[in-house]
Design brief:
Number of domains: 1
Largest sheet: none
Helix content: 55-70%
Number of strands: 0
CATH topology: Ribonucleotide Reductase, subunit A
Radius of gyration: 20 Å
CATH class: Mainly Alpha
Structural class: mainly alpha
Distance between the termini: 32 Å
CATH architecture: Orthogonal Bundle
Low-confidence stretches: 315-336
Number of helices: 13
Mean pLDDT: 89
Length: 336
């Protein structure tokens, strides 16, 4: 009979990583290391020229879409990092999980640096971009929603002891990993990677591509963490609790659809808000089944099958344009 548990285990020594109790956490850590990158490796000259070009450059709708995504992602990554450092790490004392959380925290810092690099390169008004979570209602609603559904773990007096508190913890993990990282980022990925497929804003697009690969691992770790807690504490997985989590995920899809319609009021490059809605419903079904819940959206299919290819980043670079970078393990991930 298994006695070691990932939560509320008084015998856990956070300083003793061996023996490994949860191999999946170690796998995710190794994958993250193999995927290492930094934004400065990606040239931005082409993006700078295109952004500044007044004729035959980007349309106003394309500029709006780019700004909306930079505005959301720039502060969302900081919100994500704060959840790891201030809350989740404190309650997950298992050493191999903590090892991964440290790796994820580093990746969130790289993502934050990415948007500094993009803003500096393009000469954007940083105050405008970094304040869009206050000035753009659709972005503000998303951020406020995530804050509201992850507030338990940020309480300095919160404890995971007892059934109700474990439910609160899993509730917030779903809000953070499944909704924030698994749904709220994905309309933006589809928009920005569509630009990349059109060979527009290639530098920014490649950085979003690398972030997508990181987020795939973050999501996988979060799902494994949630599933492990539920497996070890089945009493928390009541029908009412499952309904609450499902309702939160559906509400997250609604907010992301609203944001997509705001970022794409007219539709461009085959991207329309109704098509993105279909994509988000498909993604939400994947997220639900990944944590043992039934699909919610009927007949949801992926309208962007090309997104499956975006995680594979193995490619050759022009030696005179930039240094050759061979990212390890680029094909080791499966689309989630």
């Amino acid at each position: 009979m298994k006695t070691y548990k990932i939560l509320n285990n008084s015998s856990t020594d956070p300083n003793k990583i061996l023996p490994i109790h949860y191999p999946w956490a170690r796998v995710h850590y190794k994958t993250g290391v193999a995927n290492n990158w930094v934004p400065e490796e990606i040239p931005m000259q082409g993006d700078i020229e295109l952004w500044k070009r007044l004729k035959n450059g980007l349309t106003e709708d394309e500029r709006r879409m780019i700004l909306w995504n930079l505005g959301f992602f720039s502060t969302a990554e900081s919100l994500t990092a704060n959840n790891i450092v201030l809350a989740i790490y404190r309650h997950i004392t298992n050493p191999e999980c903590r090892q991964y959380l440290l790796r994820q925290a580093y990746e969130e810092a790289v993502h934050t640096e990415t948007f500094i690099y993009c803003c500096d390169s393009l000469g954007l008004d940083a105050d405008e971009v970094y304040n869009m979570y206050n000035t753009i209602p659709s972005i503000q609603k998303k951020d406020e929603f995530v804050v509201n559904i992850t507030q338990n773990v940020l309480d300095p007096h919160f404890s995971t002891e007892g059934k109700e508190n474990m439910q609160r913890f899993v509730h917030d993990l779903v809000g953070y990993y499944v909704i924030m990282e698994g749904i709220f980022f994905y309309a933006g990925f589809a928009m920005m990677l569509s630009l990349l497929r059109q060979s527009k804003m290639v530098g920014v697009g490649e950085q979003f591509q690398y972030i997508l690969r990181d987020e795939t691992v973050h999501l996988a770790f979060g799902a494994d963490l949630i599933n492990t807690i539920v497996e070890e504490n089945p009493e928390i997985w009541t029908s009412d609790f499952q309904k609450k989590i499902t309702d939160n995920i559906v509400a997250g899809v609604d907010l992301e659809c609203e944001y997509a319609a705001d970022a794409l009021p007219k539709g461009i490059m085959g991207l329309r808000s109704d098509v993105i809605k279909k994509y988000l419903e498909y993604i939400a079904n994947r997220r639900l089944t990944r944590i043992g819940l039934p699909e919610k959206f009927q007949n949801a299919e992926n309208p962007f099958p090309w997104m499956n290819e975006m995680i594979d980043l193995k490619k050759e670079k022009n030696f005179f344009e930039t240094r050759v970078t061979e990212y390890q393990g680029a094909g080791a991930l499966k689309w989630e």
